Amino acid sequence: MELLKGNNLFLRALEKEDLQFLYELENNTHIWEISGTVTPYSKTVLQFYLENAHRDIYDVKQLRLVICGTEGNTLGLIDLFDFDPKHRRAGVGIVVIKETDRNKGVGAEALQILCDYAFTVLELKQLYANILEDNGRGIHLFQKLGFVKVGVKKDWISSNGEYKNEVLFQKIND
């Protein structure tokens, strides 16, 4: 199997042609709750981000990859963030954009590819994910891929005038 390629999809670096896709994603208020975003992004800011997306994970502590179907169609994004090479760990975030692409194995395959890359190429010891307690699909996805619930952050996320708990999951590469 090629690096960053699965049976039904592949992961690739961001390209300048992804500007419109990023603009729509980053300005989707339904995603703001999980991304911590509170203001819209301009195309100018996102263009600057794309111009710097080539920078090394050891420099910027983040790796954002586009999830693509076998025909090259864009399905979502998957990130490694808070990359810590000393302690050999990173956070993982994933979003599959269209509802019609969810519950079809896209997230599981993308997450498996990223885990394999993180553990094999980056030689990480562990990955972690922060998932809202009411995100049953997200919790199921990470548990399916071997992530274990290790804690709950009470009243962690403020959303629409109420607080939500966030669950911390870890996957340790033994």
UniProtKB/TrEMBL annotation:
Highest taxon listed in the record's lineage: Bacteria
* Keywords associated with the record: Acyltransferase, Transferase
Q: Which residues form the signal peptide?
A: none
- Entries under InterPro entries matching the protein: Acyl_CoA_acyltransferase, GNAT_dom
Does the UniProt entry include the keyword Glycoprotein? no
Report the EC code(s) recorded for this entry. Answer: 2.3.-.-
Gene3D superfamilies assigned: 3.40.630.30
SUPFAM superfamilies assigned to the protein according to its UniProt record, in alphabetical order = Acyl-CoA N-acyltransferases (Nat)
* Gene Ontology terms, MF aspect: acyltransferase activity
TM region(s), chain numbering: none
Task: Work out whether the entry's keyword set contains Thylakoid.
Answer: no
Q: Which residues belong to any copy of the N-acetyltransferase domain?
A: 9-174
Q: What is this protein called?
A: GNAT family N-acetyltransferase
Lineage of the species this protein comes from = Bacteria, Pseudomonadati, Bacteroidota, Flavobacteriia, Flavobacteriales
